Amino acid sequence: MAVHLTRIDTNERVEVKEIRGVAAEDLRGALLEMEAVASGMRSTKPFYHGSINTLAEERLTDRQRNHAIDRLEAELGLTGQARVVVVHDKKDREHCHIVWSRIDLERMAAISDSHNYRKHEQVARDLEREFGHERVQGAHIEREGRERPKRTPSHAEMLQADRTGLSPNEAKEQITALWRSTDSGQAFASALKANGWVLARGDRRDFVVIDQKGGTHSLARRIEGANTKDIRERMADIDIRRLPSVTEAKDIQRARQSQDAERVQQTPGEISGAGTREAPHADLGRSGGKPSRTAAASRAAEGIVSGIANIAGGLASTVENLLGGAPEPPKPATPQEIAAAEHRATEADREADRDDRLRLETDDMSKRRQELQRKFEREITSEVRQDLDQERERTRRG
Question: Is 113 found in the same domain as 53?
């Protein structure tokens, strides 16, 4: 969050306007302090992040901005909470970010963020009238019979777009086109795979798709004109239990990226040379003596591709020896070979998961054994001390 709020590559101006309720005097220190307050609680979301974005010609004065922030803060039930305020200028348009601590120090509990969309819209409509700004049609407040506006991308989706280079609208266009060109779940899944996507089992939703850079997209939000019911009916011939999880799907995409990089890096001599072997990797990505899941998955895919390249190289050399001419370049890996690489990558990932779980269980058993041993030693020491005290008392009396 601190990195995002202070980015100068995507903003012409970054100004920290306020840091309140913390001892730290810098933005990152303030956020770390807020996070530390929540470290002893069950809540995994210590922050509430809001933003105020007006048209370029409706730039707020400092007084208006402070009033708008306080008004939103009160509506959300965050009055008096620690907060930071950062103002950005992007393409001659000013917008404001506010990050509050959600932790109520008196109750040592997180403040509820339920119905927050409705609360944001209520404050926006009130401030539009108060400041004389153009009215924006919302989805929850003052609909007045108007059609519900289309959903805008969330902040998390915009951050993902910055990271992957694929905007939500671009993803929707691509996936919608594949959806409309197929008539069954199996055909749709095959079309996704052929175009570089991976269909996966969502953590909270039925189906998600993973793009080439590892971005996660809810299928229901990326198909124009289809709702959840439509998607479930079309995907009825897909056993969702057999789909990879989001983590596994991302590992498959990483394996594909590694495979593509392997092909680009190979020189003609390396491809055509019979019996040529690559030098062992200097960094195996090991953690605690075990291969990491990403490294294991990548090496599994690389092993398949390397094997295919060596076979092709051997055949090319044989043809060259017989005909005395230059060998033809090897054919690219077939879809079946790529599928085999993906399967190997998934199996390697699962094996790494099992190794991780076994190591954690072993560590827990070791810690438990040490704890029992210390407890036993304390009990023995206490008993010996009592025996010695009793013996001294008998000696003194006798």
Answer: yes
Q: What is the DSSP string of 11-43?
A: -SEEEEEEEESSS--SHHHHHHHHHHHTTTSS-
If phi > 0 it is left, if psi is from -120 to 50 it is alpha, else beta; for residue 329 that is beta
Which domain does 181 fall in, by range?
Answer: 167-243
Residues near 238 by beta carbon (within 8 Å), at least 6 away in sequence? 185, 186, 189, 199, 207
Question: Same domain, yes or no, for 121 and 213?
Answer: no
pLDDT, tens only, 43-98: 889 999 999 999 989 999 999 999 999 999 999 999 999 999 999 998 888 999 99
Instruction: State the burial class of residue 148 (Cβ atoms within 10 Å of its Cβ: 0-12, 13-18, 19+).
Output: exposed
Encoding tokens for residue 239? 């056993």
Strands 216-218 and 286-287, bridge-based pairing: unpaired
Q: Which two tokens stand for residue 331?
A: 């054919």
- Indicate the SS3 state at residue 53: strand
Are 239 and 263 members of one domain? no
What's the pTM value of the predicted model, to 2 decimals?
A: 0.51
Same-domain pairing of 259 and 349? yes
In a domain, residue 204? The reply is yes
